[in-house]
What we know:
Number of domains: 1
CATH superfamily: Glycosidases
CATH topology: TIM Barrel
Number of strands: 13
Mean pLDDT: 86
CATH architecture: Alpha-Beta Barrel
Low-confidence stretches: 1-17, 161-199
Largest sheet: 8 strands, parallel, barrel
Radius of gyration: 20 Å
Distance between the termini: 26 Å
Amino acid sequence: MLLSFLSSVAACFALPGNDIQRLVIPEKGAYTGAYCDFGEGEDAVTYEALDNFQELTGKPMAIVAFGSFWGRGVFPAEQVRIVRSYGAIPLLFWSPWDAPFEEKLGPDKYALTEILAGKCDAYIDKWADEAAKVPGQFFVSFACEMNGTWFPWSGWFYGKGPRDPVAPKKQGATNDALAKLTGADDGPEIGWFGRGDIKNPSTWEGPETFKKAWRYVVDRVRARGATNILWVFQPNNYSDPPGFISWNQPVAYYPGSHYVDWLGLSVYGKQTMNQEDDKWCGFGKLLEWPYQEMCMIDPDKPIMLAEWGVTESHVPNEDKGAWITEALSTMSKNYPRLKAAVFWHERWQNIDGSYSNLRVNSSKGSLKAYQEGIANPFWIGRPVWKSN
Length: 388
């Protein structure tokens, strides 16, 4: 155990070069991992949090996920070092987002149009230079869940949403505010920037703007020598606005196989206690079609659940333990291209004062289900590496 720990620490501090550690995609089984409630900024990574999660679940993590917001202005070198010395591969949610990191406020100074205009080049270059020093591959999920309306890089904010026949103002009170924010109430030709803010609306192309920004960022990072990044394309498992809206499907955002190494998904069950809008749904129904869609987007890329979880409901017939049991069993049997799954272990307070508890130990039944499911040898608790 000690020699293994020392070797992982040595690898963490090794000099970069052509002979970097490369992740092996398992032929059988899948890597398991977690986001371990790293605080409001999702980046307060500590050894204690990692050890506690492993002790809780009885299995080490092959992947440890955490946030990396552009508003921080730096590459998270210390967080990467901690994860690697623990023995896992980092998964960074690299988000072009400025403080206060509040959802549904629309684009800020890191808008996709600003990226394409070259205004973020200095930050991208600095980040890439530090990333290139990491002596092994690591995952980067850039601008995840782009087919939702909560993050400012959604195609919704770049001209497509307000023109769709399913206007958000028809979907309920929450989306009424979104409709007003985006300009959906102002007529078919006006979008979020329709009041002359930041960029010319004639340049908006919805998901096309996202794809161009993705390619721009990846090309620039690779040009700086950071070829050790495994780029993860991570849509949400459903569209928001809801319904089958063609422009907002994952395939519309896909930047191409040259720019993506892994296909990812966020797959959550119920997250709040809102009985009207947040319905309980079994795991199998949540993953079945999105998985098929990922397979159709690219026939060869490995697939991961970059985020998955469900809240503790406390409502009769809404059993989190049973949900987790179904999830881990279903993933191990029915999805041959699924090669990793990262559990979202977090508890937070909602605006209405209620709590959403997605932690693995939110109840005895939840923890027991996770412990028993993850003990299956299908789930691989350490990354397997090879060298050039």
